[in-house]
Amino acid sequence: MSDQIKHECGIALIRLLKPLEYYQSKYGSWMYGLHKLYLLMEKQHNRGQDGAGLATLKFDLAPGKKYIHRFRSNGESPIKDVFAEVNAFHTAVENKNPDLLDDSVWAKENLPSAADIYLGHLRYGTFGGDDIEFVQPLMRENNWKSRNLMLAGNFNMTNVDELFKVLIDLGQNPKEYSDTVTVLEKVGHFLDEENQMLFRQYKNDGYNNKEISSLIANDLDIKKILEEASKDWDGGYAIAGVIGHGDAFVMRDPNGIRPAYYYQDDEIVVVASERAVIQTVMNVDADNVNEINPGQALIIKKDGTISSEKIRVPQKRTSCSFERIYFSRGSDKDIYQERKQLGRLLLPQIMKAIDNDIENTVFSFIPNTSETAFYGMVDELKSHLHNVQKKEILALGNNLNEKEIDRIMDKKIRVEKIAIKDIKLRTFIAQDKGRNDLVGHVYDITYGTVNEGVDNLVVIDDSIVRGTTLRESILKILDRLKPKKIVVVSSSPQIRYPDCYGIDMAKLGDFVAFRAAIALLKDTGKENVINEVYKKSKAQENLPKEQIVNYVKEIYKPFTPEEISAKISEILKSKEVKADVEIVFQTIENLHAACPNDTGDWYFTGKYPTPGGNKVVNKSFINFIEGKNQRAY
């Protein structure tokens, strides 16, 4: 992906179903669960590099013993930092009495990492700041075990203002204005209510306070708590939680916007944001990894009982298609094939852009996430060339001879590794305020791969959001090869609308497709459309989100996708670039053909799965017109 965007946090949960002694005996270490959590987090590091956190919960310790521990970092290498802090405890013991590290009973009593439940989180911040307080897992502490709550999630709520007001109306005074705090406090409030209700019930039945604590822990209705807490939520979410007495849960939004998967056997329950990660860490087949269904929660009671419960009524499945295009690791068997198919389906547009001149075209990709789509594109090119060659041979008829066959069969798809990302330079630039003079060198090129002034150069990328890196770096550096034409192919459609469910794409003015549409309206004397959309948007600004209409669609309506693509090409070609430039985008129809089970496409079509989406796009357009460079939620 040429435009770097923050997106979609990662979650990881390990629930051990046996005592630590079991894992010490079978696997040679009581750290079995800790090691699995480390692997889950490390293999999901693509999902969050702003921070990482780990929380542990121990069962059945005596009063006075600390049974909840948390480690967090917002440093440059947060996963490394977190586990270095954990390992520091192990090193201290190893230096004094190494035999104790093999004693699972002693470890549980004395080491923070010897636990029954592990909850991990990887953060990409799309709301709030980079302060350590925003790094999850979040905690809500209490002396009653069953009132302690830890949460870690991949979520964004569109209606933080409403949720914040609900908390105030409940008599609370939230410490921060963010969806993380409002979600934590909402769940925490109904956890308190459930505790209080059960306390009164058992008190009336004559039990003493000590007995009541155990009864509450056994009878706490997690399903009811989550139903009450989430009834006002508007957004995409996969949220994992642990309650101090030992219950755990992972719940998913009713549209299935955010992903969540789990594996269970008689030893362990594993939850992560990506299926392939669980497969790798647990060495299991894809068929053994289950998806948490939209609107449901996986609930693991302290006694080991595991169930899937309906929390919200499932809606039309609109899981995020960007997970398939870019975000998730491409090692998932379905995602790998879908990305290849995205590349295959672009062939007709590519052939049109190069005027069917395969012989004088070099094909490549923008590293690294577009590589799989590139393979699909090349497969389809080879298939196309094979058919062309077959037709040419058959057309020879009686003139068939070895020289002509050699001429036809010598035609090849010319594939080269053209662009090389300089990761160290990107890191340096990201830390430098005066970055404009350096950004043009984030990518390097392979010289001598293109015939100057003769060859077309086709490069595929998985998406084009702002287009800044294309304009300021990639196109300029590719132009040094002096191709006749540069064709940049996006395996995703034009990004036209803001996201509000976990991707850091909240400002309309950032999108090159939106800027192109605005420019076209001005070029064609249709500026009145901009004014009309603004009037309509402003008129509904304070309406309930359920009544808001996405009028921003009218900005794009006068133009075909091809006209907008042409304008994007014009915007992204700087005056220094000598080659012709054409930008080609995937069609919406082909996106759904390639990814039929994950139909969430609101950033391409403006069809938001929740009412809050329309509210966000409405506010984003108002902000753009009024010159407010701020988020819309």
What are the defining features of this structure?
633 residues; alpha+beta; Rossmann fold; six-stranded antiparallel β-sheet; 40% helix; globular
Architecture overview:
- The protein is α+β, with helices and mostly antiparallel strands.
- It folds into 2 domains: 10-155 and 239-317, Aminohydrolase, N-terminal nucleophile (Ntn) domain (Glutamine Phosphoribosylpyrophosphate, subunit 1, domain 1), CATH 3.60.20.10; 334-523 and 560-607, Rossmann fold.
- It contains 23 helices and 20 strands.
- It has a 7-stranded antiparallel sheet, with helices on one face. It has a 6-stranded antiparallel sheet with strand order 5-6-7-8-12-13, with helices on one face. Strands 15-14-18-19-20 form a 5-stranded parallel sheet, with helices on both faces.
- Helix 11 (333-344) crosses helix 13 and helix 17 crosses helix 20.
- The two termini are 25 Å apart.
- The model is unreliable at 425-433 (pLDDT under 50).
Whole-number tally of structural domains: 2
Total strand segments: 20
What CATH architecture of the largest domain would you give? 3-Layer(aba) Sandwich
Question: Which percent band covers the strand fraction?
Answer: 15-25%
Shape: globular
Say what the CATH topology of the largest domain is. Answer: Rossmann fold
Calculate the mean pLDDT score and round it. Answer: 92
Helix content: 40-55%
**What is the topology, as strand order, of the major beta sheet?**
3-2-4-1-10-9-11
| Class per helix and strand makeup | alpha+beta
Distance between the termini: 25 Å
The biggest sheet amounts to: 7 strands, antiparallel
CATH class of the largest domain: Alpha Beta
Provide the low-confidence segments as ranges.
425-433
What would you report as the Rg, rounded to the nearest angstrom? 28 Å
